[in-house]
Specification:
The protein is α+β, with helices and mostly antiparallel strands. It contains four helices and seven strands, in the order βααβββββαβα.
Amino acid sequence: MIENMTESIGNMAIARAHRTALRECPLFNGIPDGELASLLDCLGAKIRRFDRGGIPLTEGESLRAVGIVLSGGVEVAREDAAGNRHIIGRIGPSGLFGETIVCAGEKRSPVTIFQINQAIVRIETSYFISAAVN
C-alpha cells in the first residue's frame, strides 16, 4: 500500500517530532506553539503517511496542495522521454514542496515528488489563495 493514512490535524495531538518540523518550517516562523494546531486546522492541513517509494505528486498532475515534510524526505525529479528519473533535489524535514509552482500560478506539476519515507503535511492550495486574497 502506497498511502497508509490521511489524518486531520485538528483531531489529533501533533507528535513531538512533527511539531519540531513544523516549527522549523519557514512558513510557520514566529507562530506560537499554542496556535500552531489551530492554524493548521484552519488551513485544512492533513497529515499523509506514505510507504517508502510512495508518490505524493506526479509530473503533469493537477497541483492542489503544498507539502511540508514532517519526517523522512522527498526527492524532486523529472523523467526524460526514455523514462529515466533525474533527481533535481532532495527535501528533508521542515522543507516545503509545491509552493513555488503554486506561487507561479501553474496548474500542473512540472516535476514528480517521490517519498523517501514517512509523513508530510498537505495543505490545499485553495487555502493559500483565499488567505492571500483576504
